[in-house]
Amino acid sequence: MKKLLTLYVQVLAPLLLGDNGYVTWGVAAPEYGTFTFLGLQSGRIYNVDIYFSDVADALINFDGGAGASTTSPTSFTCPESVLLKDVAIVTGGTDTKKLQILRNNQPTGDFLRHTLHLNTSSVRSPVNLGFLQGTEVRAIQKA
Questions:
Q1: Minimal CA–CA distance to 127: which of 38, 64, 41, 57?
Q2: How far apart are CA 117 and CA 127, in angstroms?
Q3: How many angstroms separate the Cα of 88 from the Cα of each of 23, 31, 120?
């Protein structure tokens, strides 16, 4: 028994416990990212920061003018007709693995996996989803 406890304390505990002594597996890992829209009339690029809490079935937060955070709006209203060209996420979540895109609260049928849209990837697949002027763009975090 003494050998088993010694093994746990010396080997397994550091692997299972974080710096604060709590188990780190399955803990939500909030992250940031950017949705990049192309204005179809103006040609302007709209880079909109996002915050995702890494909580399944929660909406992501879009930058409302002061940076994306937990208190930011849960939608982005298109100032003109746009194409969502790119989504870049800083690392992936631990509890969520993809984003479900909504157009005026209706699912578009598109899911964007975190692994395919990491900001460190130079070969992110273009999204190319269209939204009309005034449309509210939202995204739900999915496990």
A1: 38
A2: 10
A3: 29, 11, 8
